[in-house]
Amino acid sequence: MGAKSTFALKCLQWFIRGIQFCCCAVGLALYSYFLAVAAQNNVTIPKWVRAIEGIAGVGVLYTFLGLLLLCWLAGHPFTSFIAIVLDIAFVGAFIYVAQANRGGAGSCQGRVDTPLGSGDAAASPSGLPTYGRLCKMETAVFSVSIVAILFFVLSALMEAVLVRHRRKEARFGPSPANNYTSGYGSGKGGFFSRFRRNKNADSDNPNALPEHATPDQIRQSYNTEATAVGNEPEGYPKYGESGHQYDGQTAYPENSVTHDAGRSTNGYRY
């Protein structure tokens, strides 16, 4: 159970990192296109365009490394702490990306603002796509930046979950209690073994009343109150014991010194 839960958490974090990687890759690809077109047509490139290009590029590198390191360092406290810090930093960075591309949040009709200038959506500057097309590219970047913000928040939470899960794994496994397998839920019997342990604990309760004896459990006794009638084994000497009468005589020890009539200390005699 422990290995399965660890694998499930890793798969979930891989999915989250994969979405982040795709979002960063889309932003990097589109802004690389903006920079390439601007360089070919001698268009002045704003600093914020270069900043977004850098954020997207670093995001691609970080998420790619995160996908690889999940194989070996998932839940490690040191690496997870660094990942949480970077995830929070990327949340802020992509908030900036979304704010810079807010021009793509509209309908991309009429006058629009794009990373390569402003103008009518149908207008096409020399050597550049129409402003409407540039606006739609900006819309794509705006959309993926919102998605990236949400998934960087999720990945930070998942890193905390992985650290907690790793600590539980280290605390509960492997040991004789779980058949020397890793995981706090992999012991033999699993969850239901707790009920068996509780049942055994109840049976060993010193305050519990003893069970009533059944007829086959009554011991042979000389005490008439507890003597089982009719359950004597074959050949049991009913007579011949000290103090019993046999044919009108009382059995007494044979080899003894008699102090009083009918009393002795060793052996039997009649």
From TrEMBL:
Q: Keyword Cell wall biogenesis/degradation: yes or no?
A: no
Q: Which residues cross the membrane?
A: 12-34, 54-74, 81-98, 140-162
Residue ranges for the region (Disordered) are 195-270
* Keywords tagged on the record: Membrane, Transmembrane, Transmembrane helix
Q: Does the keyword Membrane apply?
A: yes
Q: Where is the composition biased (Polar residues)?
A: 217-226, 252-270
Coiled coil regions, renumbered to chain? none
What name appears for this protein in its UniProt entry?
MARVEL domain-containing protein
**To which species is this protein native?**
Monosporascus ibericus
